[in-house]
Design brief:
Layout (H helix, E strand, L loop, with lengths): L9 H20 L7 E7 L2 E8 L2 E5 L3 H7 L20 E5 L3 E4 L5 H11 L12 E4 L16 E4 L24 H17 L7 E4 L3 H8 L75 E7 L18 E2 L2 E4 L15 E3 L10 E2 L3 E4 L4 E2 L3
Length: 371
């Protein structure tokens, strides 16, 4: 006699497929995806939120038409300078590794936690240190006789008091911190997360590379738009903090430059993420245009940004003039676009228009060096 081999029923096949799917699910459960976020605990009820940015392609640089708009009536940037040339021509680039980025710039409260826990002294607070602040005695530019800018060197100011003469808030972006200060903050946070067992080997919290920042700013768009939402400045109302129809403290005058034709409610800093969902780009990042200049890891190349991190000296991994991106609360619309980039004076320089946001990604070393 022989026995007939029984074939599995459809129900058995289906059950087996389900069990197999469940068995492989854990391998993918920890893989982040667009829209994921995580909150780091800095202590004393202070957190820092990161959002996941998947790998992708983007356009670095700006078109001739964009540069022309930036220096035109609506853009308001000063024509005839080399500033827009720093952006370079539009060119495709790729960020091939995903990373996490701060939803907002680092705030006063977050930087305060770092200082409280470490006793860190910023470059501006050290003997002989100084920072660049708004000069409240300034009234106009005096173009016919001389050019007087509204910024002055202050030895008595720092991130604790940037000299705005308005009450500072915990949710304002921290300013008057240098590239070296920012790297120290990131090192502290990396150590804190690693000691808590929340940071995988080979990863660190750091400043973003210029390519990561430029990609993140465009919010997933592969087009070369002026702003992350498109080219129309008027669509920026309720999205960003730039030079607008806002009165200086104690005065009845606004910035005497081309500005956005609305009030954003702030002559200087606005709270991070003040504009809510409307102020977030396709990656969920807030305040990527305007607000405060944001530093990146790279050394500044006046010919344009790079896909890989750029050093002054590649063998030494040196940076003497960091790149900042995105514009600030004082800038005219033409100077607060996705493609805008400038080089900072030195790794110890700080300014009441400059801040930063953090990135969690593959470790990338730079060595700050003074000129």
């Amino acid at each position: 006699m022989f026995q007939m081999k029984m074939l599995p029923s459809r129900r058995a096949i289906l059950l087996g497929a389900i069990l197999f799917s469940l068995s492989i699910l854990p391998a993918f459960a920890d893989e982040p995806k667009l829209g994921d976020s995580k909150k780091l605990d800095l202590g004393s009820r202070v957190g820092l939120e990161l959002v996941y940015i998947p790998p992708g392609d983007f356009m670095m640089g700006s078109t001739a038409a964009e540069k022309e708009w930036a220096t035109g009536i609506e853009g308001g940037a000063q024509p005839g300078t080399v500033r827009e040339q720093y952006e370079g021509e539009p060119r495709p680039m790729r960020v091939d590794k995903g990373f996490w980025m701060g939803r907002t710039e680092v705030t006063m409260a977050q930087f305060q936690r770092f200082v409280e826990e470490t006793g860190y002294v910023t470059d501006a607070e050290k003997p002989g240190g100084w920072t660049q602040c708004f000069n409240h005695k300034w009234d106009r530019y005096y173009y016919e006789s001389e050019v007087v800018h509204p910024w002055e060197r202050r030895e008595d100011k720092s991130w604790r008091d940037p000299g705005f003469e308005v009450p500072m808030r915990d949710d304002f972006p921290v300013v008057c911190v240098s590239y070296q200060d920012m790297k120290a903050f990131c090192s502290w946070l990396t150590k804190k997360e690693r000691q808590a067992g929340r940071l995988a080997e080979g990863l660190e919290i750091r400043l973003p590379t210029e390519a990561e920042w430029a990609y993140a700013c465009r919010g997933g768009s592969q087009d070369s738009h002026y702003f992350w939402w498109g080219n129309d400045l008027m669509e920026g109302k309720g999205r960003l903090n730039i030079s607008a129809v806002d009165f200086l403290p104690g005065r009845d005058t606004i910035w005497p430059l081309a500005n956005a034709p609305w009030s954003d409610g702030f002559a200087f800093l606005s709270p991070v993420d003040h504009y809510g969902e409307k102020g977030r780009n396709g990656f969920g990042l807030a305040d990527m245009c305007g607000g405060v200049w944001e530093f990146t890891l790279d050394h500044f190349d006046p010919e344009g940004g790079h896909e890989e991190i750029h050093y002054e000296n590649k063998e030494q991994l040196s940076v003497t003039s960091p790149v900042c991106r995105g514009g600030n609360y004082f800038d005219v619309p033409g100077n607060a676009r996705c493609a805008v980039r400038l080089g900072i004076h030195s790794v110890s320089y700080s300014d009441s228009r400059d801040g930063f946001r953090v990135c969690l990604g593959i470790s990338k070393k730079t060595v700050p060096q003074k000129k």
